[in-house]
Specification:
It is built from no helices and 7 strands. It is mainly β. The strands form 3 sheets. The chain has a 3-stranded antiparallel sheet with strand order 3-4-5, with no helix packed on it. Strands 1-2 form a two-stranded antiparallel sheet. A two-stranded antiparallel sheet has the order 6-7. The N and C termini lie far apart (53 Å). 0% of the residues are buried.
Length: 68
């Protein structure tokens, strides 16, 4: 008998998702992953300013919010 542990689940009656360690959610190539230590890892974001207010991007390895 195998054991299956859900890593991503929708909270009961809510509009949010919960990520357990090892879980990942992908949005158009951008992945939000919770590693085994419970830390959030973000991969696949752009590396140049998108010039869209509030959009995240990696500015030389520094997570940055675009001013537009």
């Amino acid at each position: 008998m195998s054991t299956y542990n859900t890593k991503v689940h929708r909270d009961l009656g809510g509009d949010s998702l919960t990520l357990e360690p090892g879980g990942s959610v992908n949005f158009n190539g951008v992945a939000f992953t919770v590693n085994a230590a419970g830390k959030l890892v973000l991969t696949g974001i752009g590396t140049s300013d998108p010039h869209v207010v509030g959009q995240l991007w990696a500015n030389g390895g520094v997570l940055t919010i675009s001013a537009g």
